[in-house]
Design goal:
The complex is a heterodimer of chains A (310) and B (318). Chain A has 310 residues and is mainly α. In chain A, 71% of the residues lie in helices and 0% in strands. Chain A has twelve helices and no strands. Chain B is mainly α and 318 residues long. Chain B has a domain at 38-257. In chain B, helix 3 (56-73) packs antiparallel against helix 4 (78-107) and helix 4 (78-107) packs antiparallel against helix 9. The termini of chain B are far apart. The chains are: A mainly alpha (310), B mainly alpha (318). At the A-B interface, helix 4, helix 10 and helix 12 of A face helix 5, helix 10 and helix 12 of B.
Chain lengths: 310, 318
């Protein structure tokens, strides 16, 4: 393998991992506060369409990202209301959000674009090589030659780590996720923190979805996420809710995508369907790899109620 | 719909007309309800046991592959061939459900992600089959038609209503009896409702989970068989417009009761056929089905939680 090939493989690994990483970070934040959001895939789909639509109508991809952020946050409010206020079964509520995402995104897209849309191209995020850094041989091409959303996502990893483990608000989030009753007794507003984490997490998932339409494809395809939301969930299990481990997991999946992408382009005689299976197979292997080593916040998925004993 | 500038009354009228307006329409509704009923029952038994099997879609496709395989390779009298296909496609779906079942039962692997990944893999595998080894000689990306001896008989002439609906109803009754009249059904319910209690009673939890997944996968496999042998008579990529997922909705709408699923799946089938009619007469995109379903589901969850809440408040006041 030539050095150019390795560089381009690793560069596209970083690129492909971005939407999954961003969504996984959103879920890490949500789950640290004790709420499980299984609707990642649905929220990403809504974000993907809203981002597309925003860029289409205004001609500005950043406006698209803003719309995706708001849309994600709104679905987050819905999810939080169901999981925290109504105390509904979080698995079922998550599945409902997922189906809502599929329905809303395909319905809106067919309403806006017509029943049989042609390929409508939108202005997407352009590559923004970082001056100087992108000139470093090998590493520059891999890390510093992407669009801005890639950098922001990578930056979010240490930021989220810092917030969760080095600040008071992070301590409160983790306390709420581990033992909401004790946190409540100590004067932490359990409901507020859970609401905020769910909404911010969902907003990140929305932006993650918009990366697919604005950062990669520059157009809208129905069910564009193709399971990436569920991959993000697998990464969250793998990471044990640590942002840096999530980064590692996301690169693993990014590598799987990059590999199948390059192998398809090389046309080596393996039917493309088997190459497309690669990320899903990697997911299953990852799940098998963490057997017996799973750990989760103690109160994950359990709604908190002041009146009822938990 | 208001966004689309379409009169909602005309739209909904055409939905009802399209779903129940006549003999043909009712036949179509029931034909759509059959696979939803089967996947709904598949989800019901799994959810009852707290095994979140979202893999109905994948198990459906694997069942469809098995049915096509028999239909393409064996020519026998229908009285022999159809039962054979039934058994083989049930087994195929069951085996595909066995993978996550074993991993969930013995290694506590998250079954939601696992079954979803298996969905994508199954769908891609079908796409490989119809574009590769099973491609029709004419060149389109379908399999060649299956033997006519493998066709499920049509119940009402000139509709597509086939024997599958009878099969689905029988499965619903059988599952009802299994869940409420047998020790296994009792074990499934206990494992789902209270695993601690199940352990205390000496129930073999992993074994119950594995058996549940076998039955669940098998039922979904039968749905795939119905689509191949009853409707399309060949294997194709878009065989299912998401019946596996509608099954999830049907199961929840039916309150995880087989007899409830009987009705909820007919309702969903009607929405499906009706939406098709709505698209033709009122120009509303058929994808509204997915949206309607998620609204129904969210509404259902909300009602489930809000009514007990109000009730408790009232009791508290007295």
């Amino acid at each position: 393998m030539s050095i150019e090939l390795v560089t381009s493989l690793l560069a596209s690994t970083v690129e492909f991992s971005t939407p999954i990483l961003l969504a996984a970070l959103g879920e890490v934040l949500t789950e640290r506060s004790g709420v499980m959001n299984l609707g990642i895939e649905g929220i990403m789909l809504i974000g993907a369409f809203c981002g597309f639509w925003g860029a289409l109508t205004t001609g500005n991809p950043w406006f698209g990202i803003l719309i995706a952020l708001i849309a994600g946050a709104l679905v987050g409010v819905l999810k939080a209301f169901f999981s925290i206020t109504l105390k509904a079964n979080q698995v079922i509520a998550g599945l409902a959000i997922w189906i809502l995402g599929i329905g809303l995104s395909t319905y809106l897209s067919r309403t806006v674009l017509g029943i049989t849309p042609g390929t409508i191209m939108i202005p997407g995020l352009e590559k923004a090589p970082i001056p100087l850094l992108s000139n470093i041989p090998f590493i520059g091409k891999i890390f510093f030659n992407h669009n801005v959303l890639v950098y922001l996502t990578l930056l979010l990893v240490p930021i989220l780590h810092f917030i969760l483990f080095k600040t008071t608000i992070g301590l409160k989030i983790r306390a709420v996720g581990e033992n909401p009753r004790v946190a409540d007794t100590l004067g932490v507003n359990v409901f507020l923190i859970r609401y905020l984490c769910t909404i911010i997490g969902a907003a990140l998932m929305g932006v993650a979805g918009s990366y697919l339409t604005l950062g990669r494809l520059f157009t809208w395809v129905e069910e564009v996420t193709a399971g990436r939301g569920w991959l993000a969930l697998a990464i969250v299990f793998f990471s044990k809710r640590y942002p840096f481990k999530a980064l590692l997991g996301a690169w693993l999946f990014g590598a799987a995508y990059a590999l199948q992408y390059h192998l398809q382009a090389m046309n080596i005689g393996i039917p493309y369907q088997f190459l497309l299976m690669l990320p899903y197979i990697v997911t299953i292997i990852t799940l098998l790899g963490i057997i017996g080593r799973e750990e989760a916040p103690a109160a994950l998925g359990i709604p908190y109620s002041r009146e009822e004993p938990t | 719909m208001v966004i689309e500038g379409i009169n909602p009354i005309i739209a909904y009228a055409s939905l009802l007309q399209g779903a129940f307006g006549g003999f043909y329409e009712i036949g179509e509704t029931m034909a759509k309800a059959a696979p939803i009923m089967l996947t709904g029952l598949a989800a019901t038994i799994a959810f009852k046991c707290r095994v979140w099997n979202i893999g109905g879609e994948g198990q459906l496709y694997v069942g469809a592959v098995a049915a096509t395989w028999i239909g393409l390779s064996i020519y026998m009298h229908p009285a022999v061939e159809i039962p054979l296909i039934l058994i083989i496609s049930f087994l195929a779906g069951a085996l595909y459900g066995l993978i996550p079942g074993l991993l969930k039962a013995y290694f506590k692997v998250n079954e939601i992600v696992l079954t979803l990944m298996l969905n994508y893999i199954a769908i891609l595998f079908v796409s490989f089959l119809v574009e590769g080894p099973w491609r029709d000689p004419s060149g389109i990306t379908y399999s060649p038609p299956i033997a006519e001896t493998a066709y499920l008989p049509v119940l009402i002439p000139r509709t597509r209503l086939h024997l599958g609906i009878v099969l689905a109803v029988l499965c619903a009754i059988a599952l009802h009896l299994v869940l409420h009249r047998t020790i296994f059904g009792y074990e499934v319910t206990i494992v789902g409702a209270n695993p601690e209690a199940a352990k205390c009673k000496g129930i073999n939890i992993p074994r119950t989970i594995v058996l549940t997944m076998l039955i669940s996968g098998g039922l979904a496999g039968l749905a795939g068989m119905g689509e191949v042998c009853g409707i399309q008579h060949r294997l194709m990529g878009g065989l299912s417009p998401g019946y596996g997922f509608f099954g999830v909705v049907a199961a929840l709408l039916g309150k995880l009761e087989p007899l409830g699923v009987l009705f909820s799946s007919i309702l969903l089938g009607a929405i499906f056929v009706g939406a098709d009619a709505m698209q033709r007469t009122a120009g509303v995109s058929v994808t509204i089905v997915y949206m309607l379903e998620s609204f129904i589901l969210l509404f259902l969850i909300a009602c489930d939680r809000i009514f007990p809440y109000i009730l408790k408040k009232r009791v508290g006041k007295e």
